[in-house]
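G., the chain you wanted modeled:
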Amino acid sequence: MQASLMYRGSRLFYRSVLLPLMRFKVGGLEHIPPAGGLILACNHQSFLDPIVLGCGSYRVPTHFMARASLFESRILNFYFRNTHTFGVKRGGADRQAWKHFEDLVRSGEQVTFFPEGTRSDDGRLQPGNPGSGMLIHRCPGAAVVPARIRGTWRVLNKTRGFSGLHPISVGFGPPVDLSAEWAQKGSREVYGAITDKIMAAIAAIPPVDGRDDDFVPGRPAQEKNTTVA
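Predicted structure as tokens:
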């Protein structure tokens, strides 16, 4: 699929003007396959994260999921629909959005995905949502590439809003092997195993250039529990 004019213009602006202000760094691009259905499974810190993923990956376009309530704004609705973004209803089963996600992946497109389901307000990884595994299970054979964003929570925070400029980065890891889970019939256990594998792969991605843009002096270097009960 060809990227829309608005998508290409926005990406050019973000890459040339906005992201350089935050000393944006990217690592692990060798893990992104040049073609075929691709799911970028990433941690979620900020509303900046879709921009970071869309500019970090060399493949274009990147398709995004955003909560349906954001489309109630006429301005955002127009912008999202012209930058390969589709809505998903929260708090229930949005089968139409799931089907659209699946169709995009099966047609060879690149789609972003945040398995935590919500933003972290302190940069630490959160537990993955078991429902994430169910959605990935619907896309057998796709390349599921983990990604870890660092630093965006310190720029545009979930609770504090804009908090000033700070270095940000995104690192990509090797595709997650889900062949065993895709070979099984869908169940709560299988979905949980998929989510656990993806979250573990995200947690294993090292800082780009060795600098942890999430580092806070004096804070213990530990993550929240990222496993599914």
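Residues 22-210 form a domain with the Glycerol-3-phosphate (1)-acyltransferase fold (CATH 3.40.1130.10).

Shout if anything looks off.
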